[in-house]
Amino acid sequence: xxxxxxxxxxxxxxxxxxxxxxxxxxxxxxxxxxxxxxxxxxxxxxxxxxxxxxxxxxxxxxxxxxxxxxxxxxxxxxxxxxxxxxxxxxxxxxxxxxxxxxxxxxxxxxxxxxxxxxxxxxxxxxxxxxxxxxxxxxxxxxxxxxxxxxxxxxxxxxxxxxxxxxxxxxxxxxxxxxxxxxxxxxxxxxxxxxxxxxxxxxxxxxxxxxxx
Length: 212
Description:
The protein has 212 residues and is mostly helical. The chain has one domain (5-211). Helices cover 84% and strands 0% of the residues. The protein contains eight helices and no strands. The chain is globular, with a radius of gyration of 18 Å. The mean pLDDT is 79.
């Protein structure tokens, strides 16, 4: 369920309608904020979401098998690489020169710490609160309060991962545009898709789970 599992599960549960809705909402945001044609915004949204979903599935698979420490390390290193490249693109725009070894080393260190924190927090939410065990093994003890607490935390992590991955992809595709502005754009279009689509679906799922 961790990583990009929530958007993916929401899409499966609605027979793809949630995924299509996310693409359309984010395409509208790209069209409005970046002054690109609707067609360009639509296909950019499609590819950005495919990229983040594909990487999310890789993260999820290796996270599920993280009993092998090496896979957890690979996950952290991989996410660190995406985040560090994104930060360096933004810094290059702001400073004009990011060739300083100390600056690059600091960027990689910050990216590694953030990535490690994401995976540790995800583990606490998944297993510490017991969301996976209660859903699959003890559904009778699965209270709505536990569901809301865990899922809101997981949604926040999913949002952060989506923001990093889609910002990385978009800043690499639209190199002529400001990386910092593109990061802000990706942030706000994902706020819309989460608030309008994912959050209502997840909350409704919790209510139905509680009723059942």
